[in-house]
Amino acid sequence: MAEFHSATDADGVTTITWDVPDRSMNVMSLAGFAELEALVDAALADDSVKGIVLTSGKPDFAGGMDLNAIARMKQEAGDDPARGLFEGVMKIHALLRKIELAGMDPKTRKGGKPIAAALPGTALGIGLEIPLACHRIFAADNAKAKIGLPEIMVGIFPGAGGTTRLVRKMGAMAAAPFLLEGKLSDPKKARMAGLIDEVAEDPAAAAREWVLQAKDADLVKPWDARGYKMPGGAPYTPQGFMTFVGANAMVNGKTKGVYPAAKALLSAVYEGALVDFDTALKIEARWFTHVLMNPSSGAMIRSLFVNKEALEKGASRPAGVPDQRVRKIGILGAGMMGAGIALVAAQAGIEVVLVDQSAEAAEKGRAYAADYMDKGIKRGKATEEKKAEVLGRITATADYDALEGADLVVEAVFEDPDVKAGVTERAEAVLGPDAVFATNTSTLPITGLARASARPAQFIGIHFFSPVEKMMLVEIIKGRETGARAVAKALDFVRQIRKTPIVVNDARFFYANRCIIPYLNEGIRMVGEGVNPALVENAAKLVGLPLGPLQLVDETSIDLGVKIAKATRAAMGDAYPDGAVDEVLFWLAGDGRMGRKAQAGFYAYDDAGKRTGLWPGLAERFPPDADQPGLTEVQHRLLFAQVLEAVRALEDGVLTDIREGDVGAILGWGFAPWSGGPFSWLDMIGAARAVEICEGLAARHGGRFAPPALLREMAESGARFYDRFAPAAAA
Ligand code: NAD
């Protein structure tokens, strides 16, 4: 089926329309490139055609490249994937260069046909790289449209000329936020930044008019004209030199060298800036191939794009259950979590009843939403009307009767089974027979809490992460008796508030906290053993974990750690393995060092609450040994503390889908995104190598590192997690 079609009007303007069948958004496929090329060739060869307008048949222009196609390009290249990729990318360059030169005489740069892009809405990735090769870009005045090059967010970079063209168009400094951070802009801001040329009410009509009057000189890109100089200076000019030195430092500071894409992008920009445009494209293609060949880019695309999207679209939703979208939600407890959940639900257009012990406490929760919207207004991200709309949806009250008619309730009261049982009963007395009751508990097993419910099949865990409005993961937990409709309801709700769900089975700490706690504990344990705390923290950051374990404990609070330790010890009795951790933790708590909120914890803080460095008192109580372990040893301890727990969660049936294990790890606690998640990382290093490392760690540090049976078995058979547990997602 055609993804592009074209028509030529009486004035000789050919309109090429991108309109991929059966999709709400255009994405570029390999077949799409071939079709576009054939239509461009035909229009350029036809003497009756004066020029071309390239537009979309949908409300948006394009969402980007079909990233599955990149995975396929690599697979299909056979024995020499790098060559296959490089040649594939060079073909795309040739097509875009053909559009850019539009049949003009190579010497005089005359006689080309004008080609303009008309963007009705969003234009991302390849959806902007193609327009960048056109002679002029018109966009609709559509405040909802997003324009930009977000490739870096999934571990690659704009590799269809976007990097080379943008830097030559804007200069390296101005292009940096778009290329290195994937910054997106609405059309007006994109025009001000120079990403596009014009904003018009009817971009296709404006583009057509422009095509009809364009002169030869209008078609020549600055970099194809004589005497071109890069805006902001090439690398070996005084100004350019500063840009490149600064960019190198910035990229290394931010990526710690673990993300191949940012570094490769900078190399492509720097080396490309020293040569002519066509050579620069070739250099860009080589670095792009280099990134695509790195297992990290494939793993990031798989987890952060392909599988994340699959989960958002309901990969885990029980089949055959009709739409369970929420109309009215009750939220019990208007504290930190309840207030955040009320805010995101109201933003999604859901009617909210926010209940707390007193009207004042409930009102405080509603005020959180008001504060949040005010901040948005200050930053130009929200309006007074939007604020009124969101607040208008939230009723704050102490009256449980107001829950009448709610089809979902999320409970976020104190982490105490008796308090939770009480509110469950009070709410169910008011709710209709179909309503689903969810708990946001972070530690209490769902099956136990469900005992307070008169209808356990409609009782489920919906576990949010803090801060709710920022954290994209929601962990849905099935209790032993939870039914399919409750799961579908939870998933439909998460979809309404545009977050990413994973669905797991009930067990102590579910999935995310089960993996995070051993990570924090391993860090604390090392301090107790005399490992330099700075080494612990830096080892974590240098392997791409966003926060060191000690900082993370400070952020979530030391007293929470103490509470969890006490509860775990009570549940486990003599088998409790973390006494050495508690020695450090309880000592800090005893000293009143409760973490960031007390402005005292593993770190010291100034009066404004800013971290000033590791607290020197720590070294007095737990002096670092003269003999410190190597960086890799510390990193292995920190990584395997989490990864082995993920494997055990799979082994125990808490996780039933490794895609959820990987996506959940990255979105839930920032597990080294470059790795694609714990299972992707194990596939990268191989189960055999993982077992070897863990046996060493177990011998030196204890049985918690002993490889689980599943990992041993996979090491012996040479199996990979994605081949065995998610064959369809293995690419
Ligand atoms: P919080 O102390 O900030 O808020 C709890 C609120 O519940 C308070 O406003 C309290 O007045 C209210 N409350 C207590 N008893 C009530 C009752 N009988 N009826 C109505 N309201 C009542 O706590 P929080 O941090 O928001 O945590 C709430 C829940 O979410 C807990 O189960 C916690 O484990 C879970 N959770 C917390 C986090 C986190 O990072 N804080 C993350 C995920 C889940």
Distance between the termini: 25 Å
Radius of gyration: 28 Å
Class computed from helices, strands and strand pairing = alpha/beta
Q: Residue share in helices?
A: 40-55%
Runs in which pLDDT lies below 50 for 5 or more consecutive residues are: none
Shape: globular
CATH third-level topology of the largest domain = 2-enoyl-CoA Hydratase, Chain A, domain 1
Task: Give a list of the ligands.
Answer: nicotinamide-adenine-dinucleotide
Task: Give the CATH class of the largest domain.
Answer: Alpha Beta
Query: What's the CATH architecture name of the largest domain?
Result: Alpha-Beta Complex
For the biggest sheet, the summary is:
8 strands, mixed
CATH homologous superfamily name of the largest domain?
2-enoyl-CoA Hydratase, Chain A, domain 1
> Could you give the order of strands across the largest sheet?
14-13-12-15-16-17-18-19
Strand portion: 5-15%
Number of domains: 3
Question: What number is the mean pLDDT?
Answer: 95
Number of strands: 21
Number of helices: 30
Write a concise keyword list for the protein shown above:
alpha/beta; binds nicotinamide-adenine-dinucleotide; ClpP/crotonase-like_dom_sf; NAD(P)-bd_dom_sf; N-(1-d-carboxylethyl)-l-norvaline Dehydrogenase, domain 2; multifunctional enzyme; Rossmann fold; eight-stranded mixed β-sheet; 731 residues; 2-enoyl-CoA Hydratase, Chain A, domain 1; 30 helices; 3 domains; six-stranded mixed β-sheet; single chain
